[in-house]
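in:
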């Protein structure tokens, strides 16, 4: 097998790993929203309202999921600092990781013998100086190694782990504060 073909296989594996992590992150955001809903209103602990929330969030992208999670988390008062700890993670997911994930999925990847380049297609007109225009048809980001690309999946995995922590923290509060059937 050609060495570049092996590199493309590694790239496909890295992008696939990032895709799977992204899907898991989306599902964890949906679970967090359901749990936040249960925290805010006890009726959401019943089966049917949970399914309604699940139906609504199943058609919502990450930007909307993050906005919904923020709105609901703002109402959490136990633990008192819950929102202040959760918000930076949600901002990181929405502002940084979402854009990077889109680039991973939609850009063109070209592997050369010593580098991996990712090309973003799209025309951009810039004004480097007053009264001048410069047209760029695509931009390039160069990666030094496949490890750097695989690192994105690791970042997503870390964010997923943190979301799990917040979710479990809310579940513990619910377990402590809600009556248990005898």
């Amino acid at each position: 097998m050609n060495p570049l073909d092996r590199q493309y296989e590694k790239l496909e594996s890295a992008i696939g790993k990032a895709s799977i992590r992204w899907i898991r992150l989306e599902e964890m955001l949906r679970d967090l929203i359901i749990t936040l809903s249960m925290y805010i209103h006890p009726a959401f602990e019943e089966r049917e309202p949970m399914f309604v929330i699940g139906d609504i969030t199943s058609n919502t992208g990450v930007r909307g999921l993050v906005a919904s999670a923020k709105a609901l988390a703002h109402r959490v008062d136990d633990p008192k600092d819950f929102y202040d700890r959760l918000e930076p993670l949600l901002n990181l997911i929405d502002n940084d990781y979402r854009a990077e994930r889109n680039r991973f999925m939609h850009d063109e990847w070209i592997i050369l013998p010593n580098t991996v380049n990712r090309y973003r297609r799209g025309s951009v007109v810039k004004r480097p100086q007053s009264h001048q225009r410069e047209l760029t048809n695509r931009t390039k980001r160069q990666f030094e190694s496949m490890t750097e690309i695989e690192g994105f999946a690791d970042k997503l995995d870390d964010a997923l782990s943190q979301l799990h922590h917040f979710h479990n923290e809310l579940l513990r509060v619910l377990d402590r504060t809600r009556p248990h059937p005898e």
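note: The CA atoms of residues 55 and 83 lie 25 Å apart.
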